[in-house]
Task: inverse folding
């Protein structure tokens, strides 16, 4: 009987220890935050190019940047990912949509085809995201970094291989001040807007040159 009382007392003390001695068990985990690219409509005006029917292919992205987690460069050789701050969808997907909408708002093309269109585009725009990260090597001077390679292809009506009209790599680094996820996303939006402004100028010139030789 004495042994039974001892076992009961030990069980009671163990239960108290589990209830009052382990407050960290109920501690909530940090919530994840999700982000999208949001860039304002183009501020500059451009002359529309007659007969420029264009499609924007879904962008490709380098393997080192294709995850949804934010990527921070902490030293010259080291990078780390942030599980709690992510893109809402894969970054190549949401960047393609943001660029397609921005180019459509530019008014440069006679028609910018939707992804579901069955029409044959005279030109195709391709993009490859080479770099997409927060440069935190100096946290007091953090930067948002985007590097994209763009191609403008002309598609012959006879179905032969397309010709490269424009191929260029664009880099933008935007100072963001504090090394925080919100500041980084704002910096990426500014960097993408900066790149697209330069790309639009090159695109307008290349399309005009291409159309003038036909």
Result:
């Amino acid at each position: 009987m004495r042994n039974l009382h001892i076992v009961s007392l030990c069980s009671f003390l163990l239960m108290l220890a589990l209830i009052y001695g382990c407050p960290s068990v109920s501690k909530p985990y940090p919530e994840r935050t999700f982000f999208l690219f949001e860039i304002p409509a183009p501020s500059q005006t451009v002359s529309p190019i007659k007969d420029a029917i264009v499609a924007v292919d879904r962008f490709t992205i380098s393997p080192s940047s294709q995850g949804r987690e934010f990527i921070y460069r902490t030293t010259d050789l080291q990078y780390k990912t942030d599980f709690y701050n992510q893109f809402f969808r894969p970054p190549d997907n949401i960047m393609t949509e943001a660029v397609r909408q921005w180019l459509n708002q530019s008014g440069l093309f006679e028609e910018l085809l939707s992804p579901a269109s069955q029409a044959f585009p005279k030109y195709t725009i391709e993009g490859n995201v080479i770099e997409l990260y927060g440069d935190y090597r100096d946290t007091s001077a953090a930067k948002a970094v985007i590097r994209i390679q763009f191609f403008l292809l002309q598609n012959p009506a006879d179905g032969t291989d397309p010709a490269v009209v424009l191929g260029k790599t664009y880099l933008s680094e935007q100072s963001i001040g504090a090394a925080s996820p919100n500041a980084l996303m704002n910096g990426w939006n500014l960097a993408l807007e900066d790149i697209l402004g330069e790309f639009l100028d090159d695109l307008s010139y290349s399309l005009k040159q291409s159309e003038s030789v036909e």
About this structure: Helices lie at 2-20, 91-106, 181-212. The first strand starts at residue 33 and ends at 35.
